[in-house]
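To: structure desk
From: M.T.
Subject: fold request, one chain
Message: Could you run this one when you get a chance? Sequence is below, nothing fancy, just the single chain.
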Amino acid sequence: MAVVHGERTCTAFEGFRCIATGPVGEVALATRVVLARGEQAPVLIFDDVTSELVELDLRGSVRDVKRRLAQLSAGTNETVAADGPPADAPRSAGRPRLGVVGREVTLLPRHWEWLNGQPGGASVALRKLVEEARRANEQRDRARQAQDAAYRFMSALAGNLPNFEEATRALFANDFDRVEALVRKWPNDVRTHLFRLLEQCRQCAEAAYLGSTAPKSKE
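Reply: Done. Structure tokens follow.
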């Protein structure tokens, strides 16, 4: 389950009907009204960026819900702050902390030999390689994440709708026009939300293509 906070928005559905979309607080209160009157179909709340399901505690009064949302936001901020040293903590002498995390890495002997021969040793060389790969693949990663978000939403709500399998194949083939054509008869709210996700797919795929065809600078 995703935890939504800050400026992140989400969208709630009752079956194929969109309850609300927007900031998590507004969506939570609108969803609570549906639950209070008795939902007519399963209620799902999606993160608008990742399409992961969002879990919210909507029990009790409106004041109770607002209080829990405020506590959730405050708790998230505290967790983030706890990842680093307190702002007023005295700085120790020596090299600054980089926030690195030790993990086991398995490589062949020739890989370790090459890494250990690099300036700064294996750790510095690995960090540089990861950063270079991250920058080089950033646009493609965004395109893949956008596709995953669209597929996640389709699977959760539209798995039993007509042309679902054909639409998912077209999605991962970057044939977004065909996806739209295949889902034209899907419920209006589902289709509208999916089209919004497909537009993000288009933009990310175009950026990834332009990035891959751009001339490489010579150093």
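Reply (cont.): The radius of gyration is 23 Å. Let me know if you need anything else for the meeting.
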